[in-house]
Amino acid sequence: VKSEGPKLVPFFKATCVYFVLWLPTSSPSWFSALIKCLPIFCLWVFLLAHGINFLVSHRSASRILAGLIFSAVGDAFLIWQEQGYFIHGLLMFAITHILYSSAFGMKPLDLKAGLLMAVVSGSCYAFLYSYLSGPFTYLVAVYIALIGFMGWRAVAGVQLCNDLWTWTKLSACVGAMLFMVSDLTIALNKFCFPVPYSRFIIMATYYAAQMLIALSAVETRDEEDFRKRS
């Protein structure tokens, strides 16, 4: 953890810039899009700092980088969501969750965790359903299924009971849960009712989630270094 901390300093600074400037969402611009995306750009740099060879040889890390790229595009679209680009942003983040799920892998399967995530995702959609109309009725259903699947794969990797967990697997798990909290807050605020301090909750949990998921990508390198020392 100590070795990765310095590489995240630009991310923390960029996140502080976003919250300090707190640009109004009522007047979207390319500058506000840049400020919003800047922390995610820093996470690109964080992963690239581990070396191109590392990213090429470890598919999970490269897929997380790809997910971060789609996330940044999604963030830019959501700056102009009131101008009709919300669905575009939704699509970008749907692709992000597919990439993250692929990065986390299907082993171990952990059907109990899958069932739990299915219940949580289904309950969220059941609550939102009466507020949805038109294409959002099925678009939100698909999106919730994708983020719920991503959450399942992140939770399944922890294996706390078997004492097989690592700090990076735990990082992916917490990151996935925070991502779900962020997106649920977006859905409640957009489709159901105004959520107090919604923007702060959404962005704080979102940036933390992306940082933790990016951190989970370095696990394969940690394992490789351990084998070399052994």
UniProtKB/TrEMBL annotation:
Family in the record = Belongs to the TMEM86 family.
- Catalytic reaction equation(s): a 1-O-(1Z-alkenyl)-sn-glycero-3-phosphocholine + H2O = a 2,3-saturated aldehyde + sn-glycerol 3-phosphocholine; a 1-O-(1Z-alkenyl)-sn-glycero-3-phosphoethanolamine + H2O = a 2,3-saturated aldehyde + sn-glycero-3-phosphoethanolamine
Q: Which Pfam families match?
A: YhhN
- EC annotation from Swiss-Prot or TrEMBL: 3.3.2.2
- Which keywords fit this entry according to its UniProt record? Membrane, Transmembrane, Transmembrane helix
Q: Which GO terms describe its molecular function?
A: alkenylglycerophosphocholine hydrolase activity
Transmembrane feature ranges = 30-49, 61-80, 86-106, 113-132, 138-155, 167-188, 200-218
One GO cellular-component annotation of the UniProt record comes to: membrane
Recorded topology in the membrane:
Multi-pass membrane protein
Q: What is this protein called?
A: lysoplasmalogenase
Subcellular location as annotated: Membrane
Query: From what organism does this protein derive?
Result: Climacteris rufus (rufous treecreeper)
